[in-house]
Amino acid sequence: MLNKKVHDVVTLASVTTAAGAVNANSDAVTLPASMRAVSFVLDVSAAATDVGDTLDVKVQTKIDGTNWVDVIHFTQVLGNGGTKRFIAKLCASTAETLFSDATLAAGTTVRHLLGDEWRVNHVQVDGDSDASFTFTVKACPM
Question: Model-level pTM?
Fold first, then answer.
């Protein structure tokens, strides 16, 4: 059986955070319109040193061309957690229920929505002004 690569892997974010509280978004990226599913990989290559430091990473998309919607909220990373890898997959053929603008709980659910543009939102909580996390988020369209 031939293993055929359909689309190239796309880096949505490559970040090293500075000390202090952070709430930032990556630049918007367009993924192939022909995809039926997409996997996202969060690789944390360095974490801050304190258990009180946290990092929340979300993948967002635009389904109406204007408003960003959270579709993935990865498991929260603790400052003393070391390197981690998390993977989440969205499928176009999976039914999606009605929902409000409520945010997704960390590490528990995804919304199977494939929008026009994609970005990463990350929020860092720094207990004592010395936090730093290094991470990448890649999209693997299928």
Answer: 0.88
Please state, as a whole number, how many other Cβ atoms lie within 10 Å of the Cβ of residue 2: 3
Secondary structure of 72-96 in HEC code, one letter for each residue: EECCCEECCCCCEEEEEEEECCCCC
Residue 58 is encoded by which pair of tokens?
Answer: 């979300």
CA 32 to chain centroid, in Å, comes to 18
Class of domain 13-94+108-141: mainly beta
Distance, CA of 107 to CA of 25 (rounded, Å): 19
User: pLDDT per residue over 101-124, tens digit each?
Assistant: 566 778 767 888 999 899 999 999
CA angle 76, 79, 84 (to 5 degrees): 60
CB 81 within 8 A of CB 95: no
